[in-house]
Give the backbone structure.
Amino acid sequence: MKEKMLEITLKNNHVKIAKLDDRLDPDYIFPFLEKGLSSYVDQASDLESLFANYNYLTYIYFLAEYLKTTDDLTHFLDLEGYKHISIKLTIEIGEENDSHYKTGTMKVNYPDGFMKLGYAYALSFLLAYATYEDDMLYLHMLTSIIFFSQLKKFFIDEEAYA
Amino acid sequence: MKIAHISIVDHQLSVKRLDYSSAFMRHLIYPLTGFTKMTYYHDFAELFEDYRVTYALGRGAYAMFCQEMSQCELAYGEYDLIYEDNVMFIPGIKDRQIFLFLYGAALSGMLPFEIVSDILAGAFAMFLASTQLERKDDQDALYA
């Protein structure tokens, strides 16, 4: 059985985070973040998309930093030119003995046309809500490592080193 | 050659571009190749601590984009970013963390977000590419 753990709503430049379950803590959320952030740089098929993905990663980290200081996103959203969008994120996690436990699903609802940006927002909210400073640094380091390993593929002919 | 003037005063962070030569981008980015200097670490904690210092580059860029002043406390003042003999430096600043913070702010003050993001990606990739851990088990942990 899945349970709704967290709801995050972004509307009219303000973000509201509702914790729906007392079990919720950074340890629960960390796997979502690790997986979600990594996926941004893990799916790139060419150099251009690899860097484009990293742009979103940078955006995610910057927005997360910003969210730690305020719930008013007016200034930050103005930077991107998006003032009035609504987004809802729900975390569903299974019971303790369920294999779904800690690796449940993250559902993100956002307007059409905001696929990458909507996902970026969702990850930002999670990052701001459910990480400590060292966690953020660790995740940043992890994604940088993945980025670098992907980058190498475009420049190094592995057969030459076989 | 002065590349930029960085000012953190009166709760405002601003950057003024001073280099309008055709080599501006090269002057601005070339010094980042310093990240490719091979560094050895005894364990992951040591590497992580150095990564924290390096991340000041990203924090400076963030502070400039968002005018977020809470992290500017470590560097109130007026500074010149100078490029000379393939070296980038700020007179009077020897602390690497503060230098990278100001450098990141300067990048964001003169370039659009997408380009700064690409530069940050390259910088962190180069940093990680140049790191070596002495203990094999830590290396396995890092690259697993």
About this structure: DSSP finds six helices and six strands in chain B. The radius of gyration of chain B is 16 Å. Chain B has a mean pLDDT of 88.
